[in-house]
Amino acid sequence: MSSVERRILLVEDDPAALRLFEEAMAESRIATLEVATTGREALSVLTATDDDPEHTYPDLIVLDVHLPDLTGLDVLEELKSSSAPLRQIPVLMLSTSTEQATVDRAYDLGANAYLAKPESYDDLLTLLEELRSFWLQRVEFPSQ
């Protein structure tokens, strides 16, 4: 098991979903959670690292598809067209929509996975454990 403290950026605008995710993250203690509630805020948080040598990129981005300003797909496109290391950060799309055209578009833009939002708190805890097991313990990340 890795002893490196991992960081996840959650981009989610729904207050109820955000609260559940924060509670589940606190209970599971799998990583440090950073939150952005809009696409523009997420891009601002991520690009602010360019000007601050003390700030590092998250290890993983969990990105809602439906956001109030830019869509999650817009944010994904911006991230994946950026220079390294920003474009190398794994992005997991999380949405209530499993419409095939949206799923296909996300993968075309470079999403690393597309997941349906869990319907219960227990399902969310299971998802977080799966994220920890695979993305935060098994995966080798690029250098920043």
UniProtKB/TrEMBL annotation:
<dbReference type="InterPro" id="IPR052893">
    <property type="entry name" value="TCS_response_regulator"/>
</dbReference>
<dbReference type="InterPro" id="IPR011006">
    <property type="entry name" value="CheY-like_superfamily"/>
</dbReference>
<dbReference type="InterPro" id="IPR001789">
    <property type="entry name" value="Sig_transdc_resp-reg_receiver"/>
</dbReference>
<dbReference type="Pfam" id="PF00072">
    <property type="entry name" value="Response_reg"/>
</dbReference>
<feature type="modified residue" description="4-aspartylphosphate">
    <location>
        <position position="64"/>
    </location>
</feature>
<feature type="domain" description="Response regulatory">
    <location>
        <begin position="7"/>
        <end position="132"/>
    </location>
</feature>
<dbReference type="GO" id="GO:0000160">
    <property type="term" value="P:phosphorelay signal transduction system"/>
</dbReference>
<protein>
    <submittedName>
        <fullName>Response regulator receiver domain-containing protein</fullName>
    </submittedName>
</protein>
<keyword id="KW-0597">Phosphoprotein</keyword>
